Please model this.
Amino acid sequence: MYKNLIAALCAFGMFFNFTLAQTTDPSKSPLKVGFVYVTPRLPSGWVHQHELGRLKLEKSMNQQGLSVQTGFVENVSEGADAERVIRDMAQQGYGLIFTPSFGYMEPTMKVAADFPDVKFESITGYKTAANVATANARYYEGRFLAGIAAGRVSKTGIAGYVAGFPIPEVIQGINAFTLGMQSVNPKAQVKLIWIDTWFDPAREREAAMTLMNQKADVLAFHTASEAVMVAAQERGKLAIAYHSDMRHVAPQAQLLAITHHWGDYYSKRAAAVINGTWQSKQTWGGVREGMVKVEAFGPRMPARVQTEILRLQRAMGKGSLQPFTGPIFDNQDGVVLAQGQTMTDEQILNMHFLVRGVVGKLP
Model:
């Protein structure tokens, strides 16, 4: 059967990679769970963390005695190509499809409308339907902690930030990082470069080099490759790894890593489909839920700063540390949040300003 399936897919110019988790009941058809990846599978980064989540899903299903077959397609461009791949998966009998990239949201909604019996999970999207759920993580929580670390170790008081697209998720991270840095160095600046792509190692590297030439001695980024980390390693600067631990390419440059963890979420959602309890909902988890962590400290991280960051991370997990607490000003000196106020989730989700201290602007 699988040989015929592969042959059919190849005839359409698409090959779905899949594995089959062990099952205690071979008579039952396994739930087919699909993943669409926006870049190739790399040793670290955004897609790597979702691949780890897929593998953990398989392991978890094994342990629960549930029958699951997972498949993935990698390096799928956002837009029409994504719609084609997602539609192909639905046509091939996948009962649950995860689409982890913001640009997959609209294609997911289009396909979902034509396959009401298939469950879809739009990761980082915000639109839902009866068969479409959304999930995202509070990445900004890790960014705030990383900003504190950057503020403690930076000698120039200037950090650089390479960013993909100006969506709220990215803007939240830029602002949280800046506020964290300014909480320990009020004069700190964060110089920002937009590159208008999630994955272009050459452009990511070029932006990193430009920022270091502008006196940034700590770099952060919201893109999908390791290019910024490699550039920092070459220049003897420091950098914040994003999505996953990147010490394998930047053993001296990595100050710490903000890591994302999807395995538990994926496992729970697959089990819900199998058990008939899946419902469309919006999930937004952070440090408290274990979806975001600051870890993988590098050799140039002072022990006292590491201790401070871990202490603050515990406080954040308990809800006693909120990154977006007033007073907050934008970088045009406008008042965004008054003293003593804390931003609501709705305000954070719709964030469209840059805080004071960010040297740059929204496109």
Remarks:
- The longest helix spans residues 46-64.
- The domain at 139-260+291-359 is CATH 3.40.50.2300 (Rossmann fold).
